[in-house]
Amino acid sequence: MSSMHFEKVQAMIAEIEAQAPTNSDELEQFRLRYLGAKNLIKPLFAMMKDVAADDRKHFGLLLNEAKQKAEQKFETVQSGLVGQKSKGNQDFDLTAPGLPIPLGSRHPVSIVLNQIIDIFRRIGFTVVENREIEDEWHNFTALNTPDDHPARDMTDTYYLKNDMTRMLRSQTSTVQVHEMETKKPPIRIISPGRVYRNETISARAHAQFHQVEGLYVDKDVSFADMKQVIMHFARELYGEDVKIRLRPSYFPFTEPSAEVDVYWGLNSEDDHRMTKGTGWLEIMGCGMVDPNVLQMCGIDPEVYTGFAFGMGIERQAMRKYKINDIRMLFENDIRFLSQFSSAH
Ligand code: DAH
Predict the structure, then answer these.
(1) Which of 83, 128, 268, 286 is the most buried (most CB within 10 A)?
(2) How many CB atoms lie within 10 A of CB 52?
């Protein structure tokens, strides 16, 4: 009786030894057959109760041998197959040329900023930068905007949560103050950077954007000088046939003050929307530096005069590339950004 059971297990061992799975499908079949939940060795274990008590130990050892043989074969074949795969992966042609790495393109705001910097550098302006977190003095007071001045409400300023005397600058005009406080005329600088305003985001306005500030202080600097510099800038950036106009305006730190518009066009519905129905897009504020500002920054207004201007860079990019929604400049959609050349 018992010997028949032994023979069955021995036959099973022989069967397992004879197996030679050569690929992962065959190996899976092997696993299911000898190691899976319904494997063929399991029923042999059930025969234990029919084996004579004296032979049970021996029978058990033989069953374990069958199981181990199956496990060993599985592992050996499996590691062989993995080895084969990685050998396949080593079949690289190391001499093949590399795949091309796609080149990114510059952001339109960077392209236009670089052009603006080029234009002003060529006529003797140097580039300076300054901080984005400011105090009241640099953002307002020294710019002729005392505490109770209504112009403080002209822009909605983000104050720091823990320190209401400090804020994210709402304009790059702050850099004028830093420059005049630390340098003697002649001063001829432009200063690009980020500014922040608590504005409702729309097609025309954003809560964070970029400006370039300009300042020229020397003896005998006139309004006519300012107009020429701005005209030169507009021709260089937009082309010889650009149309600009100056409108009288008000800023606390300049007297007189003006706003500069560039002609956009008035054909499509978009043109109407972008220019509020005028055909003109406002691109900068400017004016003669108010004598109070010179005085507060330690420059004698009896000796020196100056002009200043501040422009939004996004505005220039929108006019130059006819972008009709400022939000596109902040969304980082690669389909939009890849349209701009990386030349600059
Ligand atoms: N800071 C002004 C603004 O953010 C722009 C400006 C106007 C700057 C006149 C100037 C200036 O330097 O003279 O709206």
Answers:
(1) 286
(2) 11
